[in-house]
Specification:
This protein is α/β, with parallel strands linked by helices and 298 residues long. It is built from 10 helices and 8 strands. The protein has a single domain, classed as Alpha/Beta hydrolase fold, catalytic domain (Rossmann fold, 3-Layer(aba) Sandwich). The chain has an 8-stranded mixed β-sheet, with helices on both faces.
Length: 298
């Protein structure tokens, strides 16, 4: 097959993926009974009001969006409130400068969104970078956090670890146009219940936003101390559930082990056959774990 035919086939697959993704998001949003909206300062979110129990909030990872939590939102108890948030500069939320892309700024955006929807306390679920935001929320706004679920989360040493070099050089979380298949294999061990075209479209969008994502990553990784992921997590007293995929090739399982040992009230669950995005790769199992955790808090 010629390079032209390969490029044309890939472009067609991406276009098909865009159409399929929009239809899929609409269908799952209906099934989950969530409605999309935006705060006055431009943070996009979806929400379902709680009839009973503590609501669950989903915070995506770097370069992701709130839709990564849609499958799980449809599978937790229908009476439980759910909120998915696009962090500033991600998804459909307004863009931000590098100086406002720190973990603390993201956490403040989450607090403002909770205020906007009228939620006082919630279980905060954070995937990857979103786990760092969850840790900052639990450390700095403990009265708003009933519990945290850290899903393939960054660790308390993220601002001093190997990822620091990614801020100034090649970043494996920001693929190039000819690197899409490798990135898909890096992030996902188990294909989520969507077509390959949808996955290719999502990763292609990440490629096209490379400049903005490099800026957002610098804002996230270079702002440490009170602006970053807390290094002293022993101060966090709320219950914590640490979930990690056995086949995660982005964040090592040792990070999850460290968090589960350092947090005073933590439980560790390792999911076999799962990579870096368990809520997409195994949404039913994730929903069971989160629902069990939330019921214990109820």
């Amino acid at each position: 097959m010629t390079a032209w035919h390969t490029r044309a086939r890939n472009e067609l697959e991406v276009a098909l993926g865009a159409v399929q993704l929009r239809a899929l998001e609409r269908a799952i949003s209906l099934a989950a009974n969530v409605r999309a909206d935006r705060t006055p300062d431009g943070v996009a979110y979806f929400a379902r009001p709680a009839r009973r129990g503590v609501p669950v909030v989903g915070i995506h990872g770097f370069g992701g969006d709130k839709e990564t939590w849609l499958f799980m939102a449809a599978l937790v108890a229908r009476s439980r409130g759910v909120i998915g948030i696009d962090l500033p500069g991600h998804g459909r939320s307004a863009d931000v400068a590098e100086s406002h892309a720190s973990v603390r700024h993201h956490a403040e955006a989450v607090v403002r969104t909770l205020d906007h929807v009228g939620v006082e306390r919630a279980v905060i679920c954070g995937n990857s970078m979103g786990g760092g935001v969850a840790l900052r929320l639990a450390a700095s706004w403990p009265d708003r956090v009933a519990g945290i679920v850290l899903v393939a989360s960054v660790g308390r040493d993220v601002h001093a670890g190997g990822a620091l070099a990614w801020a100034h050089g090649d970043n494996p979380l920001i693929p190039r146009a000819d690197d899409i298949d490798r990135f898909m294999a890096l992030a996902l061990e188990r294909p989520p219940p969507v077509g390959r075209a949808v996955i290719r479209y999502v990763v292609t969008q990440r490629v096209r936003r490379a400049d903005a994502l490099h800026r957002l990553f610098r804002g996230f990784i270079l702002a440490d101390g009170d602006a970053g992921v807390p290094s002293d997590v022993a101060q966090i007293r709320c219950p914590a559930l640490v979930i990690h995929g056995e086949q995660d090739r982005i964040i090592d399982k040792r990070t999850a082990l460290d968090l589960s040992q350092a947090l005073p009230r933590a439980e560790l669950v390792v999911m076999r056959g799962v990579g870096h995005v368990p809520q997409l790769e195994a949404p039913r199992a994730m929903a069971r774990l989160v629902e069990r955790f939330a019921r214990a808090i109820d």
